[in-house]
Amino acid sequence: MATPHINAKKGDIAKTVLMPGDPLRAKFIADNFLDNVKSFNTVRNMFGYTGTYKGKPISVMGSGMGMPSIGIYSYELYNFFDVERIVRIGSCGAYTDEIDLYDVLLATSAYSESSYAKVQSGSYDSEYTYPTASLNENIEANAKSLDIPIRKGVIHSSDVFYRENFDDYKTIYKNHNAIAVEMESFALFHNANVSNKEAACILTVSDSLVTKEATSADERQNAFTKMMEIALSLAE
Ligand code: HPA
């Protein structure tokens, strides 16, 4: 049955969903990597597609930017469409010069100042949420067999992209050991947890808060391919 934000039927969506932030990136993945593609959502242009990768079913759908947006889509996928696992594939900004542009990161936890988890379930009072350990193990194994190096670490999920105090990141790096920043994982991991489902987050470094370097759109597309190959090999 359709939800307010996803105009699909149960069965239209695979057990495994890859979620880039950008719905056009979801379309790119479907167009270039999947066979037998069917669109399952166009509401608000938050495109979603189901297809097969090496013969195995997998879906891909945009999450939008920020925790409220991924919070809505991931909750509906888990609870109304029988989705078992969501893997966010996004970009992030590095908080340390030990990380280079285009590095691929795997989140071991998400630190956030966000009230998302507390507001969503009432009782949650931690500043950290966690991905599914077995899913992370599969991702690491896939990366290894594809010969793509990945780096593991705490990710900062921020509600704010443009901070008045740019240097806030230094304190967050120091106090929470967060190696990079994005804006969605904390809510995704929380929703998986309350829904008894699985989640993980793979990121490509698109910019550095330390060196202020940034990537071009073309370069990002190439680097993104490595991360996608790791995620696509989760199709089962
Ligand atoms: N801040 C927040 N989210 C991001 C960034 C950033 O610098 N880079 C990529 N996603």
Key phrases:
alpha/beta, 28% strand, 7 helices, binds hypoxanthine, five-stranded mixed β-barrel, globular, Rossmann fold, 236 residues
Structure description:
- The model has no long low-confidence stretch (mean pLDDT 96).
- Helix 2 (67-80) packs parallel to helix 6 (185-194).
- Helices cover 33% and strands 28% of the residues.
- It has a 5-stranded mixed beta barrel with strand order 5-9-8-6-10, surrounded by 5 helices.
- The chain contains 7 helices and 10 strands.
- It has a single domain (16-232), classed as 3-Layer(aba) Sandwich (Rossmann fold).
- It is of the alpha/beta class and 236 residues long.
- The chain has helices at 23-33, 67-80, 116-121, 133-145, 168-176, 185-194, 217-232, and strands at residues 16-19, 35-41, 48-53, 56-61, 85-94, 104-111, 128-129, 151-157, 178-182, 198-208.
- The longest helix is centred in the last third of the chain and has 16 residues, at 217-232.
- The structure holds hypoxanthine.
- Hypoxanthine binds next to strand 5, strand 9 and strand 10.
- Residues 91-93, 158, 161, 181-183, 206-207 line the site of hypoxanthine.
Task: Give me a quick take on this structure.
With 236 residues, the chain is of the alpha/beta class.
Query: Looking at this structure, what is the CATH superfamily?
Result: Nucleoside phosphorylase domain
Approximately how much beta-strand content do the residues carry? Answer: 25-35%
Query: Quick one: overall form?
Result: globular
Specify the helix fraction band.
Answer: 25-40%
CATH architecture: 3-Layer(aba) Sandwich
Biggest sheet record: 5 strands, mixed, barrel
Tally of alpha and pi helices:
7
Distinct ligands: hypoxanthine
Structural class: alpha/beta
Rg calc: 17 Å
Order of helices and strands: EHEEEHEEHEHEHEHEH
Determine the N-to-C terminus distance.
Answer: 24 Å
Indicate the low-confidence ranges by residue numbers.
none
Strand order within the widest sheet? Answer: 5-9-8-6-10
Mean pLDDT: 96
CATH topology: Rossmann fold
